[in-house]
């Protein structure tokens, strides 16, 4: 499109007879971004000269404009073609087939204490198909819909104190649920502190026994 605009600007500066000839002969292919250089070259070299001496200066100026136009269009077409190849290569390179989130790893100090929170309080079920004895540390895989949480009994490099009161301002894992009010009642009964979404949407933030921030956001359906 940019090339066509610049072509029209150059044609407007030419004598009407030559502009008519050029506009009917110059061709830019919009789909493959290649300029019809054969047509431009033919116009630049084979345009007949008038025998009228009064038109000599105008014709010379026209030929120079044709040559400049040919060079400019050729250079810009090459740039467009290179950009198209670069973008296509980048798209292919980055398309490695993302499917979904598979699991989130959460560190804990004591596996039994964490299981009491995630399994007994939140009602998450253990994925028995995942191996627990092939890793050099204790752990458990818990179903969260079709994804999982992997509890890992390992030292936590993060400080347990000084964390933001509102989990939405901290690193957190977000779980989609059907009823925030029901979860709120469960946390109230267990005496577990929480905060509500600052934006007013139906979401609640709390922390597990190891101060890992969790968000539960209500979704429809």
UniProtKB/TrEMBL annotation:
InterPro entries: Glyas_Bleomycin-R_OHBP_Dase, Glyas_Fos-R_dOase_dom, GlyoxalaseI/FosfomycinResist, VOC_core. Transmembrane segments: none annotated. Residues 100-221 form the VOC domain. SUPFAM superfamilies: Glyoxalase/Bleomycin resistance protein/Dihydroxybiphenyl dioxygenase. This is VOC domain-containing protein.
């Amino acid at each position: 499109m940019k090339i066509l605009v610049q072509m029209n600007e150059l044609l407007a500066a030419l004598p009407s007879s030559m502009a008519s000839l050029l506009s009917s002969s110059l061709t830019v292919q919009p789909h493959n971004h290649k300029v019809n250089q054969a047509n431009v070259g033919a116009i630049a070299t084979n345009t007949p000269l008038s025998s009228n001496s009064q038109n000599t200066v105008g014709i010379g100026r026209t030929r120079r404009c044709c040559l400049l136009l040919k060079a400019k269009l050729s250079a810009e077409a090459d740039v467009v073609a290179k950009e198209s190849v670069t973008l296509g290569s980048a798209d292919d390179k980055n398309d490695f087939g993302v499917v979904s989130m598979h699991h989130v790893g959460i560190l804990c100090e004591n596996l039994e204490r964490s299981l009491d929170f995630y399994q007994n309080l939140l009602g998450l079920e253990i994925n028995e198909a995942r191996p627990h004895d092939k890793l050099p540390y204790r752990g458990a895989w818990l179903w969260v819909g079709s994804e999982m949480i992997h509890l890992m009994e390992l030292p936590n490099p993060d400080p347990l104190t000084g964390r933001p009161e509102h989990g939405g301002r901290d690193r957190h894992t977000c779980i989609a649920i059907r009823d925030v009010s029901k979860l709120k009642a469960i946390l109230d009964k267990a005496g577990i502190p929480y905060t509500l979404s600052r934006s007013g949407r139906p979401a609640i933030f709390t922390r597990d026994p190891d101060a890992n921030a969790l968000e539960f956001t209500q979704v429809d359906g």
